[in-house]
From TrEMBL:
InterPro entries: Emc6, EMC6-like. Coiled coil: none annotated. This is ER membrane protein complex subunit 6. It is found in: Endoplasmic reticulum membrane. GO terms for biological process: autophagosome assembly; protein folding in endoplasmic reticulum. GO terms for cellular component: EMC complex. The lineage of its organism: Eukaryota, Fungi, Dikarya, Ascomycota, Pezizomycotina. It comes from Thermothelomyces thermophilus (strain ATCC 42464 / BCRC 31852 / DSM 1799). It holds the Pfam family EMC6. The keyword Metal-binding does not apply. The chain crosses the membrane at residues 27-44, 51-71, 91-116.
Length: 118
């Protein structure tokens, strides 16, 4: 939790946190659809398709963190794993997109699986 002095020097703006959350959610939803297309074209079935989604969703979060969050955290002198400054919490950042993009993943996965295998 930031101290009052830190909040006075660089306040956390609620609108910015909401914007960051919306941007991350849009990225994860789009990525989930692309992963569904990939899984369908590869012909993945059952657990292998869901593992594919889980691995690549977490990889997307890691890449987003490495390219966007970590450099700004380090430049501000914050610990590298502190996402609370930019998002509502660590769960929202690391795992929030898993359930948000699951429906889009399954939809595009079955669509492209059916198109390729038909």
């Amino acid at each position: 939790m930031p101290s009052e002095r830190e909040l006075q020097i660089s306040p956390i703006v609620h609108e910015s946190v909401v914007h960051n959350s919306r941007t991350l959610s849009n990225l994860q939803t789009l990525a989930a659809s692309l992963f569904g297309v990939s899984a369908g074209i590869l012909g993945l079935e059952s657990y292998s398709g869901f593992v594919f989604y889980l691995v690549f969703s977490l990889l997307t979060a890691v890449l987003f963190y490495a390219l966007r969050v970590a450099p700004t955290s380090l430049a501000a002198g914050k610990p590298p794993l502190d996402t609370s400054r930019y998002f509502r919490g660590p769960y929202e950042f690391w795992a929030g997109g898993l359930m948000n993009g699951l429906a889009g993943f399954i939809l595009t996965w079955t669509l492209f699986y059916g198109l390729v295998r038909a």
